[in-house]
Amino acid sequence: MSFTALSLRDALGLPTLASINLASFVSYILPVVLSYLGVAVLAIQPRTQSLRIALWPLVALLALRAVLSFDFSLGNPHGVFQNVELMMSMLLIAMYTLEWTLATEPLKRCIRPAKSTPSVIMDALDLALNIRGYGWDYSKRLCVPRETRPLTRTGFVGCAILSAGCHAFIWGILHKAFQCFSPNTSSSLHGGTIFDETLPFFIRYLRSTIITLIFRFSVYCNLQMIYNLCIIPAVLVLRQDPAQWPPAFDSPWMATSLNNFWARRWHQWFRRTFLFLGGNPLSLVFGSGGRILGGFLASGVWHWIMILPFNAGVELWRMMLPFGMIGVGAVGERIFLHWTGRRVEGLTGWVWATIWSTLWFNLAVDGMPERGRLGTRALLRG
Fold first, then answer.
1. What is the pLDDT of residue 309?
2. Cα 48–51–54 angle (5° rounding)?
């Protein structure tokens, strides 16, 4: 935990808890969850914006209190990932409730499960747990991959179990392959770099590019596995409709442009929130191009925050530069369409998107092992 966080925790008189038990859950986690659900209820009701504005600082403070009260690592580097999980969950709650707070009209659910009836409580629960916003009016432009799985509960859950197992197996192989490249540097708990200065220039960057591609595929497998594991209890225990769980990815390796990759083929879980926090402010100054670039910059800040628990001194540019340059490339594709009337697509588009994104993600991936993030036994996140 950083010096700033420790100082703030001491100033607020908060304890240092190494685990969550019933008492600590009721004291620190439950208030955040209840306030989050409360704002979700208000967000779908008319004439509640003033109350939401009044409540949001309380939600944000409760989330900050929860983050500062727990330190699962206590000097053990392998426990830092649990700190990350808690921190990012609380940050999501703060971001989502801020977005709902600033909405001037009640949020409306457009897609409901078959044979279901409107319910304020069930709608609020779906809003709170539906991170993509699928089926809600504020995510109308959300691109949802075509469904190819059987929609019967048994068949759907069976596919989820099979997919989770396959992706977990592949992820394990890829993660081990990543660590084998440099067990004493980039995959150690002390950190390192994916750029081996002892190698000739071409071999050095070929090696770092291979590591980057392995890392990107491992993140994909990890996220697919997690998504499928969430489907199993949601459909079997909570009795959710399989239609509420559309595919998370659409063959991202087939992307024929940067826009095609990020707006359609990669998961869209945080796209709306990044555009809200980064894209909308920049669009006021730079128009549609600013909206695209701002969304990528917000994503860069998000990934930078994920690394902070491993090393509070990590530089912001480590994430802002690569994500910002991906945004510049995406804006460049829009300019190309405006000037030529032709979209970036086909084989040429695939080569362009692969080279440009891999070039800049060399820097992003290097920023993670340099801080020891990839040396833990925990799962990767992206």
1. 78
2. 150
